[in-house]
UniProtKB/TrEMBL annotation, chain A:
<keyword id="KW-0547">Nucleotide-binding</keyword>
<comment type="function">
    <text>Part of the ABC transporter complex PotABCD involved in spermidine/putrescine import. Responsible for energy coupling to the transport system.</text>
</comment>
<dbReference type="InterPro" id="IPR013611">
    <property type="entry name" value="Transp-assoc_OB_typ2"/>
</dbReference>
<dbReference type="InterPro" id="IPR005893">
    <property type="entry name" value="PotA-like"/>
</dbReference>
<keyword id="KW-0997">Cell inner membrane</keyword>
<keyword id="KW-0472">Membrane</keyword>
<comment type="subunit">
    <text>The complex is composed of two ATP-binding proteins (PotA), two transmembrane proteins (PotB and PotC) and a solute-binding protein (PotD).</text>
</comment>
<dbReference type="InterPro" id="IPR008995">
    <property type="entry name" value="Mo/tungstate-bd_C_term_dom"/>
</dbReference>
<keyword id="KW-1278">Translocase</keyword>
Automatic annotation (TrEMBL), chain B:
<dbReference type="Pfam" id="PF00528">
    <property type="entry name" value="BPD_transp_1"/>
</dbReference>
<feature type="transmembrane region" description="Helical">
    <location>
        <begin position="233"/>
        <end position="257"/>
    </location>
</feature>
<keyword id="KW-1003">Cell membrane</keyword>
<dbReference type="InterPro" id="IPR035906">
    <property type="entry name" value="MetI-like_sf"/>
</dbReference>
<keyword id="KW-1133">Transmembrane helix</keyword>
<feature type="transmembrane region" description="Helical">
    <location>
        <begin position="132"/>
        <end position="154"/>
    </location>
</feature>
<feature type="domain" description="ABC transmembrane type-1">
    <location>
        <begin position="66"/>
        <end position="254"/>
    </location>
</feature>
<feature type="transmembrane region" description="Helical">
    <location>
        <begin position="65"/>
        <end position="88"/>
    </location>
</feature>
<feature type="transmembrane region" description="Helical">
    <location>
        <begin position="12"/>
        <end position="35"/>
    </location>
</feature>
Amino acid sequence: MTPSDRFISIRSVSKRFGAFTAIEDISMDIGQGEFFSLLGASGCGKTTLLRMLAGFEAPSKGEIFIDDQPMSDVPPHHRPVNMVFQSYAIFPHLNVRDNIAYGLRKQKLASTRRAEMVEEMLDLIKLPGYGNRKANELSGGQRQRIALARALILRPKVLLLDEPLGALDKQLREQMQLELRALQRQVGITFVFVTHDQEEALTLSDRIAVMSGGKVLQVDTPAGLYETPRTRAVASFIGTMNFFRGTVRRNGSVMAAIEAEGLGTIPMATAQLTKPDGAPVQIALRPEKFSLSPKRPEGGLAVEGRLRTAAYMGERSQYYLSIPGKAEPVAVSAPNSHRLMGGHDLPEGQALWLSWSPESIVMLDID
Amino acid sequence: MSSYIKRPNRALQLYAVLFLIVLYVPVLFIPLFSFNDSIYVRFPLQGVTLKWYGELWTREPVWNALWNSVKVGLVVSVISTVLGVMAARAITRTRMRGKGALVTFIMMPLVIPGIIFGVALLVLLSRLGVPLSLYTVGLGHLIICLPFAVATLLPRFEGFDPSMEEASADLGENGWWTFWRVTFPMVMPGIVASLLLTFTISFDEFIMAFFLTGTDPTLPMYIWGQLRFPKEFPSVLAMAALILFVSFALVFVAQWIGRKGLEEQE
């Protein structure tokens, strides 16, 4: 690991509020220039962790290092980080220019230089000419940009963002996601981004920490989290996932297989399967890893199921099929690039073949 | 058929009008008789005159008493508002035990009869050998005004997002600068309202002043003293009319500023 991979280092950090444990022994590193997301449902501790990075909460145990400096004794106003608040916290008694220049007081700049810097920031956030507007004349998206500019003008080592897109409507949100990503590349500052929206986290981040109950479940790239989740909790939090219980079947040391509920016997490479014969396992398959066909496909793994419900979703459809030997229906997502059997309104009870490849199977830790 | 919730209720409307009349008519007699050309307060009125106001103008002790009341009012309003800001900030921004009980204690002078506070303070001060003066009057007024200041300021502090102050800290300002650059401007309307309200309360206050005044009377004390002389009574009415007018004006301005500030914030 190079020092720049440990730009922010969180070491065995816990946070308790009275009897309630908000953060339980978290350790992780965030690299310089990374777009790093903390993803989890509300109450998982993600905001508490962010507030500890900002200095608004002190860890009950452990230490946070930023750029190799321990942060315990550094108050918020001396930390090399700035934050974009969920409510944006734009000062209502100041205009846009004074809001953006708020943090520059201590730098004792000439007023012309200061005005120049504010104009640069207004250009960066694509709001030139807005300097004299009052806070209450701004839309949600504009406030969000002002909050960004106000933080970025100080050139922080780390920018903390607390659900900054949560208050925006869907279209503006998607536009701001793209802009935020582009902006982060442009300024090269490390972003730590808190969100409960898995899609947003996948779109924006270099890496994501999935949090639940004050713990980090998994830290990985978006593709890593989606394709190879380690636990059922992570797998079901991100996207839709089908879970199957299974048992390891070994026949000597070369061949191994999993006997899975509803799917039958699936041959596996021994390297992928280290557990002994008869051990219980849990496997998972994403809905889009299945293919649907009216007839049994030639070769490969397939089972026959019956259609329960189908939901037409535009570019793709989501099907739910019941298969023998499994109680819950299997979710299958298929693109609507060609119509399955010539139409999208298949009758309930229609027999369909599900096929998949063994490589798309995810082995989960039993939790 | 509209629901009973929105239907106008004649009886209630009539009651409300009667209530307001009963409440304010006695007060209206004061300005009325202050223009009456007679030293006796009785109907029929004897003709309109401004001479009582003129007489008031030339009386030296009135001006002394007025100035005393203004001095006490200014000092009391500033001190109680400063203390009120500190209390409101502490109540809304810090996690502390027994906060509810503390707020109740701060608000207690609102319900404890002034005469009890007055007697208690008088006994205490005479035990301590503190001579009665405008300072002791101010002390009494401070006790009465503080809950009003806190009650005026609390909603302002409750109404603004604590992340405003955090944002200021995050942008590099310490507590002192955060207060002056963010907190103070944002609660400013509340501060103005509190200053006006506490000044008015101190200015009109009688019971505390009755117990705690030394040789320098406040205006209400002076008026009380004049009531013994029937000849002086009409000019007392004239003064009372003026005080009424100024008090009403100040309270209205205080309310208006407070409300305007709240609207702006939303």
